[in-house]
Amino acid sequence: MAQPGAIDKRAYAEERRRLIGQIEAEARDTRSWTGRARFSDRVMAALARVPRHAFVPPEDISVAYLNRPLAIGHGQTISQPYIVAVMTDLLDLAATDRVLEIGSGCGYQTAILAEVAGRVYSIEVIEDLATRARRRLAELGYANVEVRTGDGFQGWPEEAPFDAVMVTAAPSRLPGVLADQLKAGGRMVVPVGRPRATQTLVLGVKQADGTLKTKKTLPVAFVPMVKGAEKKP
Ligand code: SAH
C-alpha cells in the first residue's frame, strides 16, 4: 500500500511520453544552434523516467508535463524540460562520470544527471530549496547525489576535478573557478549573460593545456547566478 504522501513514480507515464515527442521535435527545430538534431537515447530515457510531477508545487501537478518552466517559490523556477534535455546532452556524459551542478533548485535537473552520470555534486545557494531538493531526491531513491547549501561561484574544491560541470543560473561571464575544477577533456555548459536579458548557452571543453575552448549554442533565459552570502569570519 502506498504511504501517505509517497510519490507514485509510475504515474503520468503517458504525459511523459508526449513530452518526449515534443522535446524530440524541438531538438530538430534547434539543430542549427546546438549542432544536434536529436539527443542521446540515455538522456531521453532519463527524461522518460524521472517523475517531474514530484518536483513541482502540488498545485501545478496537472501542468508538470508541459514543456515549459514553472515557478517553485523563492523567485526561482524549474527549467523547461527541453532545456534540461539539451544541457544534459551537450555534456556527453558517461555512466561513471562525476558531475558538478550549480543551482539545484527543486532538484529535477539533478535527478536527470543522476540517471545519466555516476555521481552528482549539486550546490544551491537558498538553504530551503537545498533541503527540499535533498529530501525529494532521497525519497525517489537517488543515492548517487549530494546537495550542499553554498555559493556555486566557489565550486566544490574537495571533490574536484569533475568530468562535467553544469550551471543552471546565469552568471554575467563564465566563472573561471568552475572551469578550473574541470578535468582535461571535460565539458561544461553555462548560460552566460546579463540578468533579465536573453543569455547564451555556452559549451566549454577543457583542453589538454588547461585552457577552455568555448562555443555559443542557443539563446536561453535563466534566473541570475547570485553571489552567495559572505562567510562570517
Ligand atoms: N536546476 C533547476 C533550475 C534551477 S533555477 C531545475 O532542475 O529546474 C536556478 C537555481 O540556481 C535557483 O534555485 C537559485 O537559487 C540557484 N542559484 C543562484 N545563484 C547561485 C549560486 N551562486 N550558487 C548556487 N546556486 C545558485
Secondary structure: elements and pairs:
Blueprint: H1 13-29, H2 31-34, H3 41-49, E1 70-73, E2 76-78, H4 81-90, E3 98-102, H5 108-116, E4 119-124, H6 127-139, E5 145-149, E6 162-167, H7 176-180, E7 182-192, E8 199-206, E9 212-220
Parallel strand pairs: 3-4, 3-6, 4-5, 6-7
Antiparallel strand pairs: 1-2, 7-8, 8-9
Helix pairs in contact: 1-3, 1-4, 3-5
Bound molecules: S-adenosyl-L-homocysteine (SAH).
Notes on the protein architecture:
By secondary structure, the chain is an alpha/beta fold. It has one domain (13-220): Rossmann fold (3-Layer(aba) Sandwich). 29% of the residues lie in helices and 24% in strands. It contains 7 helices and 9 strands; from the N terminus they run αααββαβαβαββαβββ. The protein has helices spanning 13-29, 31-34, 41-49, 81-90, 108-116, 127-139, 176-180; strands at residues 70-73, 76-78, 98-102, 119-124, 145-149, 162-167, 182-192, 199-206, 212-220. The strands form 2 sheets. It has a 7-stranded mixed β-sheet with strand order 5-4-3-6-7-8-9. It has a two-stranded antiparallel sheet with strand order 1-2. Strand 1 (70-73) and strand 2 (76-78) form a beta hairpin. The protein starts with 12 loop residues before the first helix and ends in a 13-residue tail after the last strand. The mean pLDDT is 94. It binds S-adenosyl-L-homocysteine.
